[in-house]
């Protein structure tokens, strides 16, 4: 019961936030929520169900994490793209079908939670990591962390520009504004502690390979894969150096997943059997090796930092190659529509043949995993690495 009452605060916060479903707005006064205990009991049940598969991990003795702060793309965007002018959105059904009590499209590119939420829960900070651009954020939301991620972004600045989303540079600018904002609210000393002791997660780069390089002639005409991954690695290095310069010390960076095995890449790769696209997987592995090398060098340069490489490539590939081991059945297509090409605006309430059992699918749409798959992948990637952040 104590756990349930503690989680009620998160339920209240969630109820107070704007959950976009086209023009639908759900705002409930705080005082009214406190007076409606039956509603809170219901929310306890909902929250318990929602997070029953999110495994928490033990932090080292005497270590605390005040906030989780995230940068990246659609994998960790909890809804920032709702508030900018871009086609890269998903604040409509069937997205969010399994979020909370169901049918709440929040702007997360999944049927439910995304890794930014799951990671915040693993570190014991909070159950939902909100979008920084959400106009309904309150002080406690900010102090415990936000996601600056924007679906469609990449290490390559051109990636975000092509689809009119927020680049990593834009996200860093928002982080600078965030620091100033919380400093005005709680003072410089507390802000410095929050900034230095928070966990930072960077998850970006898949769109560089899958879209900017593979689907656009701009970069492929100028670069081959080795030189393009050099460009990506250089941008990654610049980003991490600037993030460190702003005070971040505990930084985890996701390597690229086996991007050639996502359903859209299987479809666009052209083979009749829709096998994994080997060229994209090779590019991902090449970049990952360069990223790991850059991070090792930075770790030696910045001895007071903890730079943690998070291997999502082998984690996702293991799930795809051994689905039954993790409780999955379908690996080559997403749940939404045909599952072979639908993503973002192509995955909508009119998509026919959308599956009814998303928990048995690794992918929700043709590009993004399901909530269930994100839970499994986050554990495979992160659980054994928690100690490395401290």
UniProtKB/TrEMBL annotation:
One of its GO terms (molecular function) is hydrolase activity, acting on ester bonds. GO terms for cellular component: extracellular region. InterPro entries: GDSL, GDSL_lipolytic_enzyme, SGNH_hydro_sf, SGNH_plant_lipase-like. Pfam families: Lipase_GDSL. Belongs to the 'GDSL' lipolytic enzyme family. This is GDSL esterase/lipase EXL3. It comes from Psophocarpus tetragonolobus.
